[in-house]
Amino acid sequence: MIRKNPSGHLPVIAESAYVDKTAIICGKVIIHDNVFVGPYAVIRADEVDASGDMQPIVIGANSNIQDGVVIHSKSGAAVTIGEHTSIAHRSIIHGPCSVGSRVFIGFNSVLFNCAVGDGCVVRHNAVVDGCDLPAGFHVTSTQRIGPKTDLASLPRVSVSASEFSEDVARTNIDLVRGYKALQNEF
């Protein structure tokens, strides 16, 4: 469902993107080329700041927002998702938040008030809250990263983790093409 927010903003969705019919895209959302938005995802830009304005939620080209993901923002803060990035099933991305390009965010992970640099891998059920994660870092499953976390203790992304991330992104680009072709059959 594509709909306006109370401020009157409508989503802007590239023609080449695929948005599942059960997803909700609301308000000041910009979805770039070849993005896959899976079933029951919610991307909602509807809260305003103290001056009544809001920044957009932007999903970069060739990225995928998988089943049940929620992307929202507090008080009109910006949320950006880079290119070739995968946000896996049931993750929550809550702004203010910036996620770089070629990033993998695992199942049920939560990002809030943070920046995740290019090429990072945040595995399943992890939390990144209130800190900036530089490019190329690996957050292991169930780990919580916050403002007091010693980032030097985190491992760097391995070649195999990076290859896995790239494979997920590539697979979802193929799904965009497949589902776009099917749209004309119903």
From TrEMBL:
What single Pfam family name could you report for this chain, choosing any that match? Hexapep
Q: Which InterPro entries match?
A: CA_gamma_LbH (IPR047223), Gamma-CA (IPR052265), Hexapep (IPR001451), Trimer_LpxA-like_sf (IPR011004)
Q: Return the Gene3D superfamilies for the record.
A: Hexapeptide repeat proteins
Q: Which CDD domains does UniProt cross-reference here?
A: LbH_gamma_CA
Give the family this protein belongs to, as stated in its UniProt record.
Belongs to the gamma-class carbonic anhydrase family.
Name listed for the protein in its UniProt record = Carbonate dehydratase
Q: Which organism is it from?
A: Ectopseudomonas composti
